[in-house]
Structures are given as structure tokens and as C-alpha cells.
């Protein structure tokens, strides 16, 4: 029951009623409790966190907050737990299926399409730049390991860790059309999302080159946990890595300036023995566009925050 003996609480009472109505709508929405409604659940969990629980927290800070807020808070926490538990079961099963090789390529794509209404190319992405529901989905496929802290200081031209948006990785797989003879390298592989997802989606051999030992150890632990023998992570500087078996290279702007040019010179040497393909995302795309030995597959579509494809030519 609301306490009407404190008139200055009227505004807070109205907000409380609004929150209660919002919460009831989520509690009663049976679709949210169906496993396949992943995208609606992501939205509902987001709403619960930022429009219900945060607002309740704010109201509880006020000196004469409306009575009943605490029980509303408890109800919201309960719904959050129930919805989170559905995802926990779903992803536990998917990870078990990945480990036994039952959840790869087309079955992964089919599930993504059914769970978040999106095909491999991410054309229905909600935003052009930034992360979306596909990232929430793919993050959940990864084992729940503690996020590692950097252990060594980065050189000024080394870019800090930032994950490639998942839709860009899906697009990479679609555009690359990997064959069994391909070997993908992710230069500056961070926590390993690119090689792991590319391998899951296409089956191709995928290697990550990462200078930070803690990131490399984390990525290796993920690949081992998911039982992905064709995914390996090599802790080394991209300037000195061995690329002799690489055919496709992915760069989400891992380094800049002279360091980037030095690595590109290494790849140019590789391209003298065989043709290679490079896919880029972010500002490094402009740098690659200036290399005389590379041809951009679609120069008209060049955009820093779109996947760009380059091919070597002699
Ligand atoms: C923008 S993040 C990209 C992460 C990863 N490709 C992904 O999409 O999830 C850049 C990564 O490159 C790594 N890095 C920077 N300089 C490097 C170098 N010289 N050799 C290897 N890795 C490097 C950083 O530690 C960081 O993890």
C-alpha cells in the first residue's frame, strides 16, 4: 500500500506505479520465458536493469521514498534471475554441443537466425558502429572465465584491446568463403573471439597472434575448453610472427604507424610466394588502401567501420 500521509511523495508514487506496471508487463510476457526468445530476453533484461532496478535504486535514495519499493525491487530481481537462468541453461547446452562437434557452421547460423532473427551477414544489424544482440549471443558462447588484466606495458603504436563486433566476424566468414586449404590469421587477437568464431562458423584453421601473454592465455583456455583443435593462439609480436602458412589475414586495427607498416612489409614478402587476402576493420583500412601491392576489392564501399577486403597482386 502506498503511504499517502506524505504528500511530497506524489511524484515518486506516480513513478512507482509506472515501474510496477512495467514490471508486471515483463512478468506476464510468457514469450520471454521461451528459450528461443533470446533477443526479447536481452531487451527485457536491459530494461529491467536500466529502467526498473536503476530507477528503484534512485527512488530508494530519496528521504521519504514510497513504501512498497523494496518489494518491487525484490520482484524485479526475481524476474531478472529467472530470465538469466534460461540463458544460462541455453548456453551451457550450446557449449556442450560445441565441445562434441554437434554445433558448428550451418547449425550455429540456423540457431542465430532463430534466436535473434539474423542471417550470417548481419544485414539486420541494429547499429552500424558498436555492439548489438549478436555480440551478447556470441559472448555467451564463450566459457565464463575471469577477464584477464594486461601484464605488460603496450608500446605507443600498439592499440589497446577492443573486440571486433560479432556481425563483422559473421560478414568476414561470408565474404571469405574459406576452403579447406585456407589458414586465417587474426593479427592482434586479444581474447580470441575472431579465430574462435571464424572456426566455429566455417571450420577453417584459425590462428591468433597476440603480444599480451594474459590475453593469449585466456584465448587458448577458451579454445581448449570448447575443444577446438584447429584454433591456436601464439603469444608473440606481430612484427616477428611466422606467417608462412597464412592465406587470409584479419586486422581490426591492432597497431598503427610504423608498426603497421612493418607488419605489412612482412605480409608483402609472404605475398611474393602466394596470393593472400587481407580483411580490415577500423582506421587501418586507410593505411592498407595506400599499399601498392594490395588491391581493394570494392573501393567504392570503403568505410572505416565496414569490413574491407584487399587482395595481393604481383
Ligand atoms: C583492437 S584489438 C583487436 C582484438 C581482436 N582482434 C578482436 O577483434 O577481438 C588489438 C589487439 O592487438 C594486440 N596488439 C597490439 N600490438 C600488437 C603486436 N605488435 N603484436 C601482437 N598483438 C598486438 C593488442 O594487445 C590487442 O589485443
Structural description of this entry:
- The protein has 314 residues and is of the alpha/beta class.
- The protein has 2 domains: 7-99; 104-314, Vaccinia Virus protein VP39 (Rossmann fold).
- It has 10 helices and 7 strands.
- The protein has helices at 10-28, 38-61, 69-99, 105-116, 133-141, 166-176, 193-202, 213-225, 257-271, 284-289, and strands spanning 183-187, 205-210, 231-235, 248-252, 277-281, 294-296, 308-312.
- A 7-stranded mixed β-sheet has the order 3-2-1-4-5-7-6.
- Helix 9 links the parallel strand 4 and strand 5.
- Helix 1 packs antiparallel against helix 2 (38-61), helix 1 (10-28) packs parallel to helix 3 and helix 2 (38-61) packs antiparallel against helix 3 (69-99).
List the keywords.
single chain, 314 residues, alpha/beta, Rossmann fold, 7-stranded mixed β-sheet, 10 helices, 7 strands, elongated, disordered N terminus, binds S-adenosylmethionine
